[in-house]
Q: What sequence folds into this?
């Protein structure tokens, strides 16, 4: 085999494959890998032949082939698909650094939703460093519209939501929504409130305003939720859900007359029926109160609300038992 290897070096057109197959058949893996490593260093081979040698070397000894694969991945003019394939081979072989460089180059011209960016984030891992987060921020600031929103979502995805302060909405609702999610994730509620207030003021559709109202409710910003529902009802006066939720907010803030007017026109759930019963009780309309509470009980699926309704209906033993069960299930509640 050593003699055949020398012939393969000197007369590769006739002896190269004979040697490769013979070495494989004889189980001489180290000899073959050593031969291929020397072949990969040659400068007199055409690029096609050199790549063939390197690919064979990778099959026998991936560690020895990695520097050659990295060099090939950086070859000027190499098609993007070939770069991706080489980056993946580098990654599989354990050369994460070289693979990262290839994916970063591919991602420079790619959009935020592209596979190249997705792969780059995978290579970066769960906690990108300052340079990597800075790269994402620069891409977000340079983009517009939906692409800027998508870059912000990528920043949130890598755990850097707290660093989006320098990104402007540009007046685009998609960017505004993405920043809202980022600030909410980072618990920067002052910034969240500022952008949400702006969003409510410029909301132009019922569904958009409904989404803002729900975001406000999530953070107990009931004044912004009330503004959202008010704007929504100006556009869609008979929206049953908006009437119901606005009525609940009015009741919670002690605006009982307004709450009654809103809830009277709403699509009802168990809680709104309970509140209508409470409003009737405030006006001494006992029969109407009991009727609403009974309807609420029939529609209810919440154990705590069920216990409250049972108490209002005077079914004290059942209410007490249910409250006891709830406390036993969660003593800290």
A:
């Amino acid at each position: 085999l050593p003699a055949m290897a020398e012939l393969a070096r000197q007369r590769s057109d006739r002896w190269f494959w004979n040697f490769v197959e013979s070495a494989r058949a004889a189980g001489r893996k180290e000899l073959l890998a050593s031969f291929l490593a020397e072949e990969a260093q040659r400068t007199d081979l055409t690029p096609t032949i050199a790549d063939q040698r390197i690919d064979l070397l990778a099959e026998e000894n991936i560690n020895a082939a990695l520097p050659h694969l990295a060099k090939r991945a950086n070859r000027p003019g190499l098609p993007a698909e070939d770069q991706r394939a080489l980056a993946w081979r580098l990654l599989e072989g354990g050369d994460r650094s070289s693979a990262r460089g290839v994916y970063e180059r591919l991602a420079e011209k790619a959009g935020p939703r592209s596979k190249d960016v997705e792969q780059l984030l995978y290579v970066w891992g769960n906690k990108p460093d300052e340079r990597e987060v800075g790269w994402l921020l620069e891409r977000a600031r340079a983009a517009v519209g939906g692409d800027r929103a998508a870059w912000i979502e990528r920043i949130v995805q890598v755990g850097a939501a707290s660093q989006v302060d320098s990104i402007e909405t540009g007046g685009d609702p998609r960017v505004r929504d993405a920043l809202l999610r980022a600030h909410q994730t980072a618990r920067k509620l002052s910034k969240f409130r500022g952008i949400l207030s702006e969003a409510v003021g410029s909301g132009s559709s019922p569904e958009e305003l409904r989404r803002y109202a729900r975001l406000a409710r999530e953070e107990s910003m009931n004044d912004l939720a009330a503004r959202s529902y008010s704007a929504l009802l100006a556009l869609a006066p008979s929206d049953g859900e908006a009437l119901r939720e606005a009525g609940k907010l009015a009741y919670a803030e002690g605006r009982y007359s307004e709450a009654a007017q809103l809830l009277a026109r709403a699509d009802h759930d168990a809680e709104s029926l309970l509140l209508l019963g409470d409003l009737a009780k405030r006006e001494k309309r006992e029969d109407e109160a009991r009727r609403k509470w009974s309807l609420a009980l029939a529609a209810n699926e919440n154990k705590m609300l069920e216990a409250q309704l049972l108490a209002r209906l005077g079914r004290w033993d059942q209410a007490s038992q249910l409250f006891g069960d709830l406390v036993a299930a969660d003593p800290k509640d």
Q: What stands out?
A: The mean pLDDT is 88. Residues 12-26 form the longest helix (15 residues). The chain is about 75% helix and 0% strand.
